Here is the input.
Amino acid sequence: MSNPETEWLQRSLQGDEEAFASLVERYQNPVFNLCYRMLGDEFEAEDAAQETFWRAYQHIQRYDPQRSFATWLLSIAAHYCIDQQRKRRAPILAIDDLLEETLPDQAPDPERSASQTEEQMAMRKLLQTLNAQDRSAIILRYWYDFSEDEIARALNLSASAVKSRLFRSRQALARQYMADAARAAGKERKQDESPAF
Amino acid sequence: MNHQPFNSWLYEDTPLPAAQAEELKQHLQICPDCRQQQEAWLNVRHMLRIAEAARPQPGFSSRWQAGLEARRLRQQRRQVRITILALAGAVLLVLLGLLIYFALTSSFADLFASMIGTSTQVAVGLVQIGEFFQSLLRFLPPGVMTAVWFIFASWICILCLAWVLSVWRISRKGVPSHEELH
Here is the structure.
């Protein structure tokens, strides 16, 4: 952990609001990304990320300085998103929203941008096929490089449960990917066979 | 064809020992199903690894700070509500307990008689306290009474002045809105 962060944390533990705001500034992207990948909606992700930081601020005294602050924060975010998903129960797949989604303005190249959007859409569709806890395990593993032990700590699961959840999720994602690819190939074939007029 | 244990090895996140890796390689050469699954998983993993992190709209931390006061206020109100409800619940429980106790230990006529008796005793007690203070005032030197009245009148004047000032201020500036408070 870097020095300014340690100082912000120490000041936050003493109730310094400004110091905590610096931590919010620093961790807003990873927390938002986790919420966005979990919930699949920008506005819900914003609310969830704001709630995560509020909960962290309220319970900062429970934070163990021996542990990573990022892990603690992401654990709060993951739990909150899992709860939200359980409350919602229904799957979220607003295709119209997905199409309107815009990516950060990095590439002016429209072709690249379109392909990135497609990838993002495909990614989101794949993730939505998993249940909330499996999804959070996959996100923490592949976006945040958490080890199985870290995921277990963050999600309050045993290491073996995490291992089997990850295994099951990988299998489910691969099968879903194959099914999507087969469907896309079928569509293309139909278009090629249709008359030109 | 038996796909186990190769099908499980495909999804292992840690590198396989050399012997197992070789066995898997040989199986993949003859099993198109497992090969397809391996390709699918590798593609998904690649997508996961290269996917860009989503970012919030600019001003996230400012929005957090702005929302902090509102959340605090909400929490305080909730705590006050909980405290009032808890107190009211406790009082109700005590009253209910007393009611049950009296209902079980005495008759209605006894209760009515003791209620009348207690009310009379309280009234008599209040009259006696009043008489006590009146007799005390008669023995005090007249200077002390004047001083007491002067202090009392001064406080009344100060309170009146504060009330008039508040009314004047509100009528001039108005009541701050919810947004202004935050």
In short: Chain A touches chain B at residues 17, 21, 24-25, 28-30, 32-33, 36-37, 42, 45-46, 49-50, 53-54, 57, 103-104, 116, 119-120, 122-123, 126, 138, 141-143, 166-167, 170-171, 173-175, 177-178, 181 (CB under 8 Å).
